[in-house]
Design brief:
Shape: globular
Radius of gyration: 20 Å
Strand order of the largest sheet: 1-2-3-5-4
Largest sheet: 5 strands, antiparallel
Helix content: 25-40%
Strand content: 15-25%
Length: about 300
């Protein structure tokens, strides 16, 4: 378990704003004692009403339990009467910025880089799920990268621990473009498969350089999902017709060819993507199983060769 110091606010000097989290502004900052560059998430406290936001409490509590190379590390917590500062290790950019930079320059992301990014995302997700933690907001903005090629999952403001059997949860989670169909249909009983769905859509976005499913409302997002993957039946997805937001009047779409929607992805990638985007969450591949998919074989072989060379 990680140990945090409780330093005065002067221990960190803000340099510039780098983005917004679920509930606070994020700055690039310098540790005035060590000179280390860090990411500082500033959260204003509503002293008269709620005090420390529940999302901040949840993020701190969960990150105390996680220590993994593909999860952003919480280094410190700084608290005053009016402000809470969470200090994280600094990463150079998020995946959304990385994709936009490639798109603007007219360059595609090479396959080996995509495999490395996906492998690291899945390792982080697998560790969360092994510790019975749902992230519930996997998206490019919450995946961080540095210049050394390291990838870390961040922003656990919507995350929560889960137990088996799964208890009912809110469906007001996950950014719309990456929201799993069971959540869109207002299921309050969901599990690790919601994160896998989101990871699958990030996978497709690395190739397309734009979100695969861009609805402008929940119902439009449902339509985008079903128009891509086909209208589900009770045989294909038991219980789907009993969900709150399911309508018998939904158009009867036929599934599209994923390879046509994600050009540039090879057959092994399409096979993995189809397993991540299974409509029935019970049929969706797990993070551990995804890591063993043949799509990653050449990456794993390259890593083994590099390790062997380093060892010699």
């Amino acid at each position: 378990m990680q140990q945090f110091g409780y330093n005065p606010p002067t221990a960190y000097k803000r340099l510039n704003e780098v983005g917004d989290g679920t509930y606070g502004v994020v700055y690039k900052a310098e540790n005035t004692q060590t000179g280390d560059i860090v990411a500082l998430k500033k959260i204003k406290l509503d002293v008269q009403n709620e005090g420390i936001p529940s999302t901040a409490i949840r993020e701190i509590a969960l990150l105390r339990e996680i220590e993994h190379e593909n999860i952003v590390q919480l280094l410190d917590v700084v608290s005053t009467e009016t402000q809470l500062q969470l200090i994280f290790q600094y990463m150079d950019r998020d995946l959304k910025e990385f994709i936009e930079q490639k798109k603007t320059s007219g360059n595609k992301i090479d396959n080996l880089t995509i495999k490395s990014i996906m492998c690291q995302i899945l390792r982080g997700v697998a560790d969360c799920h092994a510790k019975r933690i749902l992230h519930r907001d996997i998206k490019p903005q919450n995946i961080l990268l540095n210049d050394e090629g390291e990838v870390k999952i961040a922003d656990f403001g919507l995350a929560r621990a889960f137990q088996v059997p799964i208890r009912p949860y809110t469906h007001e989670v996950v950014t719309l473009y990456y929201r799993a169909p069971e959540i869109l249909l207002s299921s309050v009983e969901y599990s690790t498969a919601v994160d896998i769905w989101s990871v699958g859509l990030v996978f497709a976005e690395l190739y397309n350089q734009t979100p695969l499913l861009q609805g402008d409302s929940e119902i439009d997002q449902i339509f985008k999902v079903f128009s891509l993957l086909g209208h589900p039946t009770e045989e294909e997805w038991p219980g789907v017709t009993e969900m709150k937001n399911y309508k018998k009047t939904f158009p009867q779409w036929k599934p599209q060819n994923l390879a046509e929607r994600v050009p540039g992805m090879d057959e092994l990638g399409i096979d993995l993507l189809s397993k991540m985007l299974a409509l029935d969450p019970a049929k969706r591949i797990s993070a551990d199983a995804a890591l063993s998919h043949p799509f990653f074989d050449d990456l794993n072989q390259l890593i083994e060769e590099q390790n062997a060379e380093f060892g010699s």
